[in-house]
Specification:
Elements lengths: L3 H10 L11 H14 L4 E8 L5 E7 L9 E6 L7 H19 L7 H7 L3 E5 L4 H10 L18 E4 L10 E5 L5 E3 L7 E3 L8 E6 L1 E4 L44 H11 L4 E9 L3 E4 L11 H18 L3 E3 H4 L12 H8 L3 E7 L2 H4 L10 H4 L3 H14 L5 E9 L3 E8 L10 H19 L5 E10 L4 E10 L21 E5 L4 E3 L4 E3 L27 E9 L2 E9 L3 E9 L5
Parallel strand pairs: 3-4, 3-11, 11-14, 12-13
Antiparallel strand pairs: 1-2, 2-4, 5-10, 6-9, 6-16, 7-8, 7-9, 12-14, 15-16, 17-18, 18-22, 19-21, 19-23, 20-22, 23-24
Helix pairs in contact: 1-3, 3-13, 7-13
The structure holds zinc ion (ZN).
Zinc ion binds next to loops.
């Protein structure tokens, strides 16, 4: 048996460095396999599907005895191709949990939190879009989710990103044009900013580096935000899915992509998932439900839980937590359709939320905007200049690369280069990544520690007359959350109540058949401002406990089993009829 010190040395020895850089797919797979090989009793690896390019969709399961159903959390990252930082954060949380199992603690979390975390299983999908991430890490071209093109409609003109100047990267092209919407910033040569009425030029059009399919030689098509791929995975999930044009990026039908299909099938087979972290970049904000209605229409108990999680998250990471509906609609009162966390919350009853990792706006000194989504749409020229200066001073100039003249086969003279947003805009700089991973882990591990915790606190047998005994079972939930998970999840039809079964070989039930439904058991947690006030401190009744009695006849061992698909099952035994009790 290796000592804990040797185990930790082994954990550190197999690290592939994801806390200080972004791993390509082969390295990411090697990391997952290295953990599974080094710690087979703690870590297992499952492929839940394959991408269209044939890459495995990996889920890492962290926790001993992975097939024993028990409260489980899900973490996914990198469903958007360019948001590779989510993979690093997901891997960091997985590594922290391995460390917690080996050392008993991590990040100086309190003993009660660590004890609870050991009971929780972690399903970690570090990279939901391996095809997309690989393309972005290889040539930097912008992709929303995946580099795939299954369109039957192929006659119209359309941009196709790619390397034009032979440097291996697909960046941006600028073309001089009196109708250009961009002009060089006087304060920062090479930086293009939106043109104003007072600018004198030269003016530029900005296009993706690449070629135009079906070009007529005259008319340049507008580049599409979704780039080469018309499906955004985060609009392709079944809850409240809506087709184009109502929802851009929806895909042909819900779960039309192998990645969204695999996630939905996996999660549907695991009703024990009670919390869900969906990692994106960038912004420095947590986005919580509901995406479809204001807080005033949300379940009040759920809202109190999210208030609590928001308070932890903000104090540990500095990022605020905002409602999707109230602060993250790109068009007011037009909810997003088919996104992942609405599926996780409304359909799977999980505490589901997004983190937009990397608070670039804060780094640039931009004050918090309300609604938060305005950060993305209301950047000024001054903000862009601040970004260029920040890049020079703090990001080794990785973003702004300057321009080189090139002859474009379709457009003639162009300049290629400009911006490489991968490290600095879309994702944090390498030297900040490690600290961000720690903060995100600290915040999410608290959420994971809210898990319901079902136990059989006591089982007793009392002899009655003759061959009869009275079996008394005390079932308890010591967790923060109810055995149903969040309050609103109680109404989901698959979220069956706890059942209790008493049986034993040669033991007969007297009155009833030993089976009964006992309902869900309340947790002790009340969220923030959701429980007793300081001026009237009272509890709810002991709704987290149920006592069940059953008269049995015979002698031998009585087995008791309690549980539900949401929290798994626990068992206990007691001897009856052996006399002398
Ligand atoms: Zn995203």
């Amino acid at each position: 048996m290796p000592t804990p010190e040797e185990q930790i040395a082994r954990l550190e020895g197999v690290s592939r460095g994801f806390r200080s850089r972004y791993l390509k797919q082969a390295e990411l797979e090697a990391q997952l396999q290295a953990w599974a090989e080094a710690f087979p009793s703690l870590v297992s690896l499952r492929s839940i599907g394959r991408s269209l390019d044939g890459r495995d969709l990996w889920v890492l399961v962290v926790g001993p005895d992975p097939d024993r159903v028990r409260p489980t959390v899900w973490i996914d990252g990198n469903m958007h191709a360019s948001e590779v930082c989510g993979s690093s954060v997901a891997l960091s949380i997985a590594e922290d949990m391995i460390r917690l199992h080996l050392e008993g603690t991590v990040h100086r979390l309190s003993a009660p939190v660590c004890a609870r975390l050991k009971e929780v299983l972690f399903h970690v999908m570090p990279r939901m879009s391996p095809d997309g991430a690989e393309a972005v890490l290889t040539d930097s071209g912008y992709l929303r989710s995946n580099p795939r093109d299954r369109r039957p409609n192929r006659q119209h003109a359309r941009w196709q990103g790619g390397d034009v100047d032979g440097d291996g990267l697909a960046q941006v092209m600028r073309v001089r044009d009196p109708g250009g919407e961009f002009v060089e910033a006087r304060e920062f040569p090479g930086l293009l900013v939106p043109r104003t009425l007072d600018d004198e030029g030269p003016f530029y059009k900005l296009y993706p580096e690449g070629l135009i399919e079906n070009f007529d030689g005259r008319h340049v098509p507008s580049p599409h935000f979704l780039a080469d791929n018309d499906t955004d995975l985060n609009r392709n999930f079944p809850y409240s899915w809506a087709p184009e044009p109502e929802q851009a990026g929806a895909g042909a039908y819900p779960t039309s992509e192998p990645e969204s299909r695999a996630v939905v099938e996996h999660i549907t087979a695991h009703p024990e998932v009670f919390a869900w972290l969906n990692l994106h970049t960038f912004g420095g904000v947590f986005i919580r439900p509901s995406g479809h209605s204001p807080d005033s229409k949300m379940d009040a108990d759920d809202l109190a839980l999210f208030r609590q999680i928001g308070q932890w998250a903000e104090s540990l990471t500095g990022y605020p937590m905002v409602s999707g509906f109230e602060e993250f609609l790109y068009e007011p009162e037009k909810p997003l359709h088919g996104d992942l966390i609405d599926f996780g919350y409304h359909q799977r009853g999980a505490i589901a939320y997004v983190c937009e990792v990397w608070d670039l706006f804060k780094q640039l000194g931009i004050a918090r905007k309300k609604p938060f989504v305005d950060h993305y749409t209301q950047l000024t020229r001054d903000d862009l200049v601040a970004l260029a200066r920040w890049d020079e001073a703090h990001n080794a100039g990785r973003i702004f690369r300057g321009w080189t003249k090139e002859r474009h086969p379709q457009l003639g003279e162009v300049e290629v280069g400009g911006v490489d947003p991968r490290v600095g805009i879309w994702n944090p700089p390498f030297d900040l990544l490690g600290g961000i991973c720690v903060q995100q882990s600290q915040a999410f591990l608290r959420v994971a520690a809210m898990a319901p915790s079902l136990s059989i606190a006591k089982v007793e047998a009392k002899p009655l007359e003759g061959e009869l005994s009275l079996v008394t079972v005390t079932v308890q939930n010591d967790g923060y959350l109810s055995t149903a998970g969040v309050a609103s999840a109680k109404k989901l039809p698959w979220n069956e109540p706890l059942t209790l079964e008493i049986k034993g070989e040669g033991i007969a039930m007297v009155g009833g058949d030993g089976w009964r439904e006992i309902g869900h058991l309340d947790g002790w947690g009340r969220g923030l401002y959701g429980g007793a006030s300081l001026i009237f401190q009272r509890s709810r009744g002991n709704l987290g406990t149920r006592v069940v009695e059953q008269v049995v006849r015979g002698r031998g061992t009585v087995q008791v089993r309690v549980g539900a698909c949401r929290v798994g099952w626990v068992e206990a035994r007691v001897e009856v009829g052996s006399g002398g009790q």
